[in-house]
Amino acid sequence: MKSKRAIRERCDELVALIEKYNHHYYTLDTPLVDDAAYDELMRELASIEEKHPELRRLDSPTSKVGDVISDGFDEVRHDPPMQSLGNVFSGDELSEFDGRIRKILGTEEIVYSVELKFDGLAVELLYDAGRFDRGSTRGNGEIGEDVTANLSSIRAIPERLGGDTVPEYLTARGEVYMTHREFERINRGRGERGEQPFANPRNAAAGSLRQINPRVTAERELSIAFYGIGKISGGPALPDQQTMFQFFKKAGLPCPENVEFGNLGRIREFYNYWVQNRHSLGYDIDGVVVKINDFAMRDKIGSTSKAPRWAVAWKFPAQEAITVLNSVDYQVGRTGVITPVGNLDPINIGGVFVKRATLHNFNEIARLDLRIGDAVKVIRAGDVIPKVLAVLAEKRTGSERPIETPEECPSCGSALSREEIYVRCVNNDCEAKLQERLRFFVSKDGLDIEFFGPDLVQRLYDAGIVQSVADILRLGAAELLAVERMGEKLSEKILASIEKRKRIPLSSLLRALGIRNVGEHVARVVAQSVGSLERLYNITADELMAINEVGPGVAESIREFFGSPENLRLIDEMLAAGLIVADEVVETRVLKGVAGKTFVFTGTLVRMSRTEAEALVEKHGGRAAGSVSKKTDYVVAGGEAGSKLEKARQLGVRVLTEDEFQKMIGGE
Ligand code: IVH
């Protein structure tokens, strides 16, 4: 028997490892281990925690709810209501705000906190005795929607609060937002699937949080910053905003990174700095929020029915401008989809010259009724590609010309195929497509080769050194040094990074190949199910479609890719260049009765832990959910099953005993 100390040490080691892998997987997009190895560690940790509940750490990665399906959102009443903020738009207006406050309080100088104003959506999280109990959107301020399951899938949100003094009851308030990088990743995927892109990161964040299926939320990386408290009891004394942030940090609640405390002068400096530097942040802010630091002073000053009198938002100048659309270019993507891009009369928006704006697809052009020569409203949000928001039809002179949908590929000249809302070049030898594939292959979404940007791809391509993704793996110092602006140090770093990326799990290869319809998530699902690269060579569309979450579009794209002798030759060349593709799972068996079915486990199981049972279901192509709904296929009821069993009976969902489940899964 292992000593308690050894078990505790193993437990700490597992938490640290899993956290490291999470960081690489979710934040850096560069998985260090394949999913099977990761799952194994999670299972080991869960089983230790089950046997020794006292070792379960507050921040344990097992505390994250994985997959719960809800049927809509329940209502949550906010107490006190979630108010909005008054706005000011200039330094003078801010002085007036300060003057009003000083008059009421009879004070000479006030200490304010000044924070960034995140452009996302406000949420409230209830922690009951330190445990995340319920989370909701702001809604109308009085009543919001219960999005607990979705919030649980945000990794940055702790399931349990840390720190020395855990409040009995806490409603923490903050903003859920999406980074530009994630926004663009999601919109690329939507574009490739022919779906309407999200207009901006805020809409994308809201759309992702208000998903009925939390699995969708979990696939999108949302961020959160907490900036206030609704109610607190039994916690540490919190006299002001500064102390509150210190408490949040200790508790594990992410706080705004940039905060200052001080007088009006300090606020102005902060504001001016961020007006200039907002685009370096990687996410949208639309101003700063100025709040009285001291909570007792806040109470004295009070609120109107809508907003507090002790805080105000100092908004940034608009990021929209009116300009003229002069012409349209057609860009060829790596899967051949043609994206129209508008050339604009250059215009300064928030300190940056904007000359081009994406028009997304030809449906979007029709929806906007956009014509060449039109006056258009353009929005620029951070690093996000500027976008045409609307046409000012009243400014038309009659000389505007319609935008043609091209018939031929602008790069290779071959006839384009029209596929629902998009237009595609289907020529496999198209140079533009090839170059895009190369760029994708080295990028963060591909193999993530460091110091290998699109510029270098272009230079190597133009020099005739790199013509295929296999050439990238074959690069040596001589080839790299042959291009301009390449030093020895840099070339060594690049080669080292290529070497490192030569050993990858199957899912990473699938993703990096840039197969149409196959993004990160699909790549993982497919790789886990098929297990090895060889299996993909002669897999049928039906076999692919038997995999949970794989539809005809994905199946067809994968079949098409692996059905092409040219692509197979390319993979052979990559393998010959030293690529090692690790199998995704050791054993795979998609079981007929289990694949595609949703299981909910309830009550105490005797032969295995719930986590193990859920892992078994997923291993066999099924889905394990946390709550019972009409979509549930089976509820497996162990001893002392309660409300979930009740609900299953009400909904007529099939109930299995643990033995029946065991038989179904093949006696494992
Ligand atoms: S304090 C009583 N601080 O801005 C009002 N709000 O326009 C408490 N927001 O609904 C809000 N960043 O969604 C506060 N650092 C920040 C914020 C922030 C973004 C949002 C929040 C609020 C809206 C008001």
Polypeptide structure, described:
The protein is built from 25 helices and 26 strands. 37% of the residues lie in helices and 21% in strands. The chain has a 5-stranded mixed sheet. A 5-stranded antiparallel sheet has the order 14-13-12-16-17. Helix 12 (431-442) crosses helix 13 and helix 17 packs across helix 18. The model is unreliable at 65-71 (pLDDT under 50). It is an alpha+beta fold. The protein binds 2-(butylsulfanyl)adenosine. 2-(butylsulfanyl)adenosine binds at residues 83-85, 115, 117-118, 122, 138, 175, 227-228, 256, 289, 308, 311, 313.
Quick overview:
This protein has 668 residues and is an alpha+beta fold.
Q: What average pLDDT do the residues reach?
A: 88
Each distinct ligand: 2-(butylsulfanyl)adenosine
* Apparent shape: globular
Portion in strands: 15-25%
Helical content stands at 25-40%
Low-confidence stretches: 65-71
> Please, how many helices?
25
Strand order of the largest sheet: 2-11-10-3-9
Question: What is the terminal separation in angstroms?
Answer: 25 Å
Query: Rounded to an integer, what's the Rg over CA atoms?
Result: 28 Å
Largest sheet report: 5 strands, mixed
User: Tally of extended strands?
Assistant: 26
Instruction: Indicate the structural class.
Output: alpha+beta
